[in-house]
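Why should sequence recovery work at all? Because a backbone constrains its sequence more than one might expect. Tight turns favour small or flexible residues, buried strands favour hydrophobic ones, and helices have their own preferences. The token representation captures these environments compactly. In the example below, the structure is given first.
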């Protein structure tokens, strides 16, 4: 017989029937009453029910994202930016003329009418497969828990027209005429052999008359034709506005509207002979070349001002990227400073402050040859000539579906200029897919 756990058999025998010392069986081990086992099962079942009830309650709560304060994990390297806060798991995508901000996460669309301090859920993109199992799987994937588990970023290009119509570019072009509460697929580019726009948030242009344009971001084998598509009739009808013949270019990086000159800019890449900046002033009846033929003209997005164009080049060769200024007064392209890592996205704030971001491409010739810091970086300038490295976000290594390494970059919302700087790091180890908001501090010009 095993000794009592208290070490005193005499004292333990006095309490043999108490809950402190349970009865022992013939082998000397404590006997566990059957009711105790049933009680444990009941407790476990009750716990599961409470957890399920809490999960259901969480799912039923209205979705609202609120600007979070607190210390930033990003390395803010300059006093030109003052962090305001960040929005968890949300990408700011478009700013309307009345300062309404649209954001996306997974298939869910959110909006803010208070300058980005809070976002409320509007609606979500539909599952186009009508089968019952596809609908059930989509409902599960779109739950809060499902989105938290698989972390799908969703689409990036969203535009809003002056009529209130919202267009989302994803596997289809989706249209909403009820403020984003519901969407219908109005055009399938792949069904006609077309590709969609480049990922980002600034690759689709909206004109003063609500005409919508985007260029194909093709990545297949050369040569191939590349098209610019036009959306009309409030985003319902889609046709070809312009066609680059095979061998002319690889793909279109973006189409941007210039409110100062009432024209559209078109940026193409990637080889020297494929890289150029074009413009049209007659809705693509004609397309003129501003310049091209080198990596200096390999542009993803540009910063458009009354007097000049600014851009960071997408030059991933060993020589690396630079910041350029094209002045309209003298028609001259000037290099402002060296960047190194390629630049994708850029923006202009309402006070004229310029901002651009560089991307980390692990497999690019520049990265292989020079080993720069593995980070996506934010550069800011108040005059376009002097640039500050304002913030840096470390790269989080990953692998894409095609087996290639992921890239780290930073996006800005498209649409109208804002007072505060909004940007979203992607594939970074801190603040990945969190929209950050910062105030720019305009220092006296030197």
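From this structural description, the recovered sequence reads:
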């Amino acid at each position: 017989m095993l000794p009592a756990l208290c070490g005193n058999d005499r004292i333990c025998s006095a309490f043999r029937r108490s809950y402190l010392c349970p009865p022992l069986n013939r082998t000397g081990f404590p006997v566990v009453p059957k009711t105790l086992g049933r009680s444990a099962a009941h407790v476990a079942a009750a716990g599961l029910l409470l957890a399920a009830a809490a999960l259901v309650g969480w799912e039923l709560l209205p979705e609202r994202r609120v600007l979070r304060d607190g210390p930033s994990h990003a390395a803010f390297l300059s006093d030109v930016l003052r962090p305001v806060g960040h929005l968890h798991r949300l990408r700011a995508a478009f700013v309307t003329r009345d300062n309404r901000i649209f954001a996306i996460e997974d298939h869910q669309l959110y909006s803010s009418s208070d300058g980005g301090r809070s976002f409320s859920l509007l609606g979500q993109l539909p599952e186009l497969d009508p089968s019952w199992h596809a609908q059930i799987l989509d409902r599960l994937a779109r739950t809060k828990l499902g989105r938290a588990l698989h972390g799908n970023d969703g689409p990036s290009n969203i535009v809003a027209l002056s009529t209130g119509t919202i267009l989302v570019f994803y596997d289809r072009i989706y249209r909403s005429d009820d403020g984003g509460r519901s969407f219908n697929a109005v055009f399938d580019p792949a069904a006609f052999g077309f590709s969609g726009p480049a990922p980002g948030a600034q690759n689709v242009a909206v004109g003063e008359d609500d005409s919508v344009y985007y260029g194909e971001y093709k990545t297949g084998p050369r040569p191939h034709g590349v098209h610019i598509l036009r959306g009309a009739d409030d985003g319902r009808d889609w046709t070809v506005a312009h066609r680059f013949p095979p061998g002319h270019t690889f793909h279109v990086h973006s189409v941007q509207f210039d409110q100062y000159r009432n024209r559209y800019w078109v940026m193409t890449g990637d080889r020297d002979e494929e890289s150029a900046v074009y413009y049209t002033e007659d809705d693509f009846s004609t397309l003129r070349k501003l310049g091209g033929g080198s990596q200096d003209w390999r542009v993803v997005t540009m910063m458009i001002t009354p007097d000049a164009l600014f851009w960071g080049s997408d030059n991933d060769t060993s020589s690396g990227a630079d910041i350029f200024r094209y002045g309209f007064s003298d028609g001259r392209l000037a290099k402002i400073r060296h960047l190194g890592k390629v630049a994708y996205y850029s923006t202009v704030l309402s006070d004229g402050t310029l901002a651009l971001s560089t991307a980390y491409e692990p497999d690019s010739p520049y990265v292989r040859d020079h080993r720069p810091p593995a980070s996506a970086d934010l550069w800011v300038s108040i005059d376009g000539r002097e640039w500050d490295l304002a913030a840096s976000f470390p790269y989080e290594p990953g692998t894409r579906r095609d087996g290639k390494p992921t890239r780290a970059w930073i996006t800005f919302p498209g649409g109208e200029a804002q007072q505060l700087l909004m940007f979203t790091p992607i594939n970074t180890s801190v603040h990945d897919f969190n929209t950050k908001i910062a105030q720019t501090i305009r220092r006296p010009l030197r």
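A few observations help interpret the result. The chain has one domain: 67-440.
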